[in-house]
Amino acid sequence: MLEPGNAAELAAMVADAAARGAKLELRGGGTKSGFGAPREAEVVSLARLTGVVDYDPAELVLTVRAGTPLADVQALVASEGQMLAFEPWGDPGATIGGTVAAGVAGSRRVTAGSARDHLLGLTAVSGRGEVFVAGAKVVKNVTGYDLPKLMAGSWGRIGAMIELTLKVLPAPRDVVTMAARGLAPAAAHAAMACALGSRADVSAAAALPDGTVLLRVAGFAPSVAARCAVLPGLLAGHCALEAMAEEEAAPLWRQAMTGEALRGAVRWDVHTPPRHAPELIAALPVGAEWAMDWGGGRLWIGTDREDEAVREAAASLGGEARLVLAPEAMRARVPAFQPRAQGVLALEARVRRAFDPKDVFATGRFAEDAHADAV
Fold first, then answer.
1. Under CATH, which number does the domain 174-244 receive?
2. Beta strands 289-293 and 266-271: pairing type?
3. Which of 235, 223, 221 is nearest to 179 (CA)?
4. Tens digit of each residue's pLDDT (9 = 90 or more) over 127-154
5. Which CATH class is domain 7-170?
6. Using H for helix, E for strand and C for coil, what is the string for the chain?
7. Domains in the chain: boundaries
8. Domain 259-333 carries which CATH code?
9. Within a 10 A sphere around the Cβ of 348, how many other Cβ atoms?
10. Cα 186 to Cα 219: distance, rounded to the nearest angstrom
11. Same fold, 174-244 and 259-333
12. Per-residue confidence (pLDDT) for residue 374, from 0 to 100
């Protein structure tokens, strides 16, 4: 395993791999190493690239090295009464760089945006072994290509991020979860849609298979109290609501945003138009389990079936499904990402090749990278 301690060392390692025709797999905490097809590549651990470069709470801007543990970053901003607005989550050991590279976002994404919306700038090493800088340490920066938006969610296929500059936001002074019980999927979606579209300013909405619907209300305490008081009346035609204790609500939100409680050897992460979420649940294979987040825009699905029935059902409803957990044989056979149109694949390949002409980061983890030449 290669373990660079700074940008120069990482750039030299990448340049050497390009010269040798070798493949490099970038790794932060290794918590998502099972995503994608099995592959053979030299692992480059970014775990030594840690620490805060600059943090200005007054300006709501944080610059941090990519290998810094996500938990440390969250604790740091929380100590200043602030938060990462896209509500990233991860298993123990997850890093901030890996989290952003994977595009991880929690329940608040439906109102606060994703990782790409809060990544202001970065320093990275391309597949050429060259250090480059993109974006800036300001909120408004529109000159040239918006490379931070390409890097967020790229899974290390464009370059290796060394430093990230993130926009942070003040954390709400008060947070209350209002909950409903015993709702079928269609009724749960209708209640969430009503809540998210109401003047109650609900910041997150999720539903679980036991019929529980979670609605998060956050802000200054008097405002939260007023909105929680009016919300039951606004949803009277859909369900009864009650405030849920934080110790009960927290693990339920975690289940909704991660799908970690679902049984089955196979797990899918499905993004779909929210109105189609109940239809997709009805079309799931027998025995499949689900958890609904983003007001129905995301469905986690757990099953033991190793076919692509879930992906096919999602596609028929205008959605797409990512395979996030599966036995090795299935991961070797089934692409991690929803297959895309040839034109889109060709555009992605051109962008990736501009930064990685020698395919140093094309390890075979993703089918579209392995077949880029054919595209």
1. 3.30.70.2190
2. unpaired
3. 235
4. 999 999 988 765 444 445 578 899 999 9
5. alpha beta
6. CECCCCHHHHHHHHHHHHHHCCCEEEECCCCCCCCCCCCCCEEEECCCCCCEEEEEHHHCEEEEECCCEHHHHHHHHHHCCEECCCCCCCCCCCEHHHHHHCCCCCCCHHHHCCHHHCEEEEEEEECCCCEEEEECCCCCCCCCCCHHHHHCCCCCCCEEEEEEEEECEECCCEEEEEEECCCCHHHHHHHHHHHHCCCCCCCEEEECCCCCEEEEEEECHHHHHHHHHHHHHHCCCCCCCEEECHHHHHHHHHHHHHCCCCCCCEEEEEECCHHHHHHHHHCCCCCCEEEEEHHHCEEEEEECCCCCHHHHHHHHCCCEEEEEECCHHHHHHCCCCCCCCHHHHHHHHHHHHHHCCCCCCCCCCCHHHHCCCCC
7. 7-170, 174-244, 259-333
8. 3.30.70
9. 20
10. 29
11. yes
12. 47
Angstrom distance (rounded) from CA 118 to CA 352? 22
Q: Evaluate if pTM is beyond 0.90.
A: yes
Phi, then psi, of 238 in degrees rounded to 5:
-115, -40
Q: pLDDT (tens digit, 9 = 90+) per residue, 73-114?
A: 999 999 999 999 999 999 999 999 999 999 999 999 999 999
Q: Directed axis angle between helix 221-234 and helix 185-196, to 10°?
A: 130
Side chain identity at 115, as an amino acid letter? Answer: A
92 to 76, 155, 300: CA distances (angstroms): 17, 19, 20
Q: Can you give the length of the chain in residues?
A: 375
